[in-house]
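FW: tagging you since you asked about this chain on Friday. Here's the raw sequence from the shared folder, copied in full. Didn't touch anything.
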Amino acid sequence: MQWLNKVIDQAEQRRPKGEIIIESGVSPSGTYHVGTLREVLTCDAVLQALKLRGRQARHIHYVDDMDVFRKVPLNVPPEFKQYLGRPVCDIPAPDSSSQSYADYFLNDFLQAAAKLQLSMEVVRSHERYRDGSMTPAIEKALGQIDTIRRIIEDISGRQLEKDWAPIQVMEDGYLKSRRFLSIDRQAKTVDYLDADDHQQTVDYTGGLVKLNWRVDWPARWWLMRVDVEPFGRDHATKGGSYDTGAAIVARVFETQPPIPLGYNFINRAGETKKMSKSTGDIIAISEMANVLPPEVIRFFSLRYPPDKQLFFD
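HL: got it, structure written out here
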């Protein structure tokens, strides 16, 4: 597995001493499927290989449960359309087995992860925003809006709106993009204009202000000191979210980006499109873990380099 040895060598060169952090990140917006499995198993492979070399290492699985609910999956009742625009951590579960929508899908994954003997620390986005852990990143981002804007426009090639800001604010339980006015670091508040152009003030330390995705990702790298990060090929395209994130973490958060480990999709045999949570065209990780031994699942996912597309029959 030369690809794995190469990543381990890079990680050790990057951090010759101390603990090496590997991060995976998934939104619990629907069922965790076989495509997701490649990310967490790649992280686990890096973790185990580092430990074999006698290094301290940790795999953090970051649950993006402050992610906005954008589309109702086929395996979720259609009446959940009323929750579109709300964070998935604040939506009720499809049944009584879980406290929230996010818990419902995360718990299914965690049960499968236990069967696969994955060693990882689960960190939840909504907890980090609501306990103030993300506050330093919000302040840094709002202090360098023009820099972030130039990075995104120059690297991605797309023009941002005139009043673009790197945050969303919570209004009546929904995350909204609003016109940012100012930040008061002493009072820990943000002033913005609501939909009716009325000035509003909100505390940004308790989860009422969230960083946009392209800024949230590099903010996590900085705060958690991430060294290695696998991600799907859709994020690895030229000018994509990894490229903008790498520039943002270097210029705004003043640290180096994690070693990128882009991976290709796992498709159903005979299918040309990747599996989609919203369409229901998936094979759940929990289903796979009930049918196949952990060793077979690992062999299927890791026998080829991450950039090779896989097909599961």
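FW: The first strand starts at residue 20 and ends at 26.
HL: agreed, and The first helix runs from residue 2 to 14.
FW: great, closing this out.
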